[in-house]
Every structure is written in structure tokens, then in C-alpha cells.
Amino acid sequence: MRLLKLSLLLSSALAQTSAQAAEGAFSNYFPGAYGSLLPGMAPEPGPVFANVNLLYSGKASRAVGEGQVKASVESSAFYSLFQGLHVWDAPELGGRFAVGGYIPVGYASYSATVGGLANSQDEFALGDIGIIPASFYWSSGNFHTNIYGLIIAPTGEYNLNSGVNIGRNYWSADLVAALTWFNPEKGTEFSVVPGLMFNSKNEDTQYKTGTEFHMDFMFNQFVSENVALGIHGYAYKQLTGDSGSGALLGDFKGEAVGIGPAISWIPKSAGGAVAFSASWVHDVHSKNRLSGDYATLSFSIQF
């Protein structure tokens, strides 16, 4: 099982539709997307490919998006990320070193009331790419650690005159640490993946989303040699409020907590080099942020 490293590194841009904190009441952090199974454990040396699919549906009473105050927002989005990671055998700083990134494509739809008029739109386009310039893995017994940086570039489709956008039109830098305890004899895993995300200003709207703390957590138990069942969740809190002349609803800070079931499968026929994972996370608490459901479906292969 140690040859498996399915790290859903994403921080994908969700469509800029809809509550109060963060522009559009969402950000470049996607709950539940930073890990599924053994996120702190290093892959074997060589290339790793993953396809991570993210689905979201939620509602908010109001939000600022594209420079307008929107009310009664309903939003849904689907993203498919094509992710690559190359792992070197030679150690760096005492651990295994890797670099990588992802390219997302997405579809988003929304409906909202703007200026008393109901409006709905949808869009399919390229999203904001993510770059992982440095990733380090260390292991000691049953404890495994992965520390990396993620840069999200505003390459996605964005139009200020459109009510829904796949790209978010600002840069983000995310500092992430994945911490895993795994007992291979009992097949039990506990992992937490905290991160701190810093955002630049959206120059088109003059809106700057505040600094965000996020943490994904997961418990997985192998019920057979190849199947693990789990409970996954996340916690999110804005450490600083939104700012800029475009923050029409003021200095708000968002927070949210979600939890749900997960399953992973490692086909025996592939020798552990292939893995599939699926999860569903439901918001049990949300303040000044979109509230809804998140689902992930991922595939990874170690070459």
C-alpha cells in the first residue's frame, strides 16, 4: 500500500457565483480536494498521473460577484483536473522530492437575482491552472509528512460582463502540509491536511479575498486488501476579511465545516499502481460562504 499516493492536490477555481465572504462566497480552495487516501505518503519514484473530478452544488442568500451584489443564489459546478507529478529517487533535504501541477476544465451554472431581476447563466471553459514548484516527503515509522507549495494562476476564462466564470481572475499561493499516520498491519489511517492560502486582488473588480485557513481530514480503514472505507471532512476559516473598493458587502469573514463518507479501491491486478477514490462531503456549518455538497471522484496511476 505504501506505493500508493493519491493526493488530490487541487485548489481549483469554482465559478464566481454567489453568501458574503470571499469574492463570490467561494475561493480557490475546494473542500475535500486535498487528499483521499494516505496524502502524506510519498509515491514511488517516477511519474504519477491523476484525473480528479469535482462536483459542487450549493446556495447562498447573497454575494458579490463580477462587481455586483447578487441575491438568492443557486450554483453548481463540475471540474475535471488533469494532474501530473514527477517524483525523484534522490533525496532532497532528507526527503523525497517532487514537482507537478494540474490543468482544469470546468462547467458551471448559476441563477440569482441582480437588481431585482432574475438571471441564470452557464459556462464551459478552461480553469485556473495549478503549479507545484516544490514538494517534499518524509517518513518515520508509521508517520508520513508531505509539505508543498501550490501556486494558482489566473489562466481560466473570465469576463466581467458575464454572470458566471470558470476562472477567478486572481493569483493564489497555498502553503500545505499533509500529515499521515498509517498502520499497515491493521490497515488504519488518520490524516490531516492543513493549508494557508494567500490571495492577490482581482484587478477587474477591485476585490481582494482575505487570507484563508483550511484543513481537510480523513479516517480510512481497509476492510479488505484492496478496499478502504472512510469518513472525510474539512474545516475552513478566513483569518482576514475581504477588502478593496469592490467588497461591496464590507469586511466579512467566512467559515464552514463539512463531513461525509468515502471509499477507495486499489485493484489487485494492477499491483497497487492504480487507485480509485470517491467521496461526498456535506456542509454541516457555513457562515458567510456557499453552503452545499461536494463530491470527488478520482483516478491515479503510478508509472
SSE layout:
Elements (H helix, E strand, L loop, with lengths): L45 E20 L2 E25 L2 E20 L2 E10 L3 E11 L2 E10 L19 E12 L4 E12 L1 E2 L4 E2 L3 E11 L4 E12 L16 E11 L8 E14 L3 E12 L1
Antiparallel strand pairs: 1-2, 1-15, 2-3, 3-4, 3-5, 5-6, 6-7, 7-8, 8-11, 9-10, 11-12, 12-13, 13-14, 14-15
InterPro entries: FApF
Pfam family, one: Phenol_MetA_deg
Keywords: Signal
**Rg to the nearest angstrom?**
19 Å
CATH class: Mainly Beta
What share of the residues does DSSP label as strand, in percent?
over 45%
Number of helices: 0
- Form type: globular
Largest sheet: 12 strands, antiparallel, barrel
CATH superfamily, called what?
Autotransporter beta-domain
Spatial strand arrangement across the major sheet:
1-2-3-5-6-7-8-11-12-13-14-15
Seen as an oligomer or otherwise, the chain set is single chain
On the 0 to 100 scale, the average pLDDT is 85
Q: Which secondary-structure class do the elements indicate?
A: mainly beta
CATH architecture: Beta Barrel
Distance between the termini: 15 Å
Low-confidence parts, pLDDT < 50 over ≥5 residues? 1-20
Please give the share of residues in helix: under 10%
Tell me how many strands there are: 15
CATH fold assignment:
Lipocalin
- The number of domains is 1
* Series of H and E elements: EEEEEEEEEEEEEEE
Pfam families: Phenol_MetA_deg
InterPro entries: FApF
Keywords: Signal
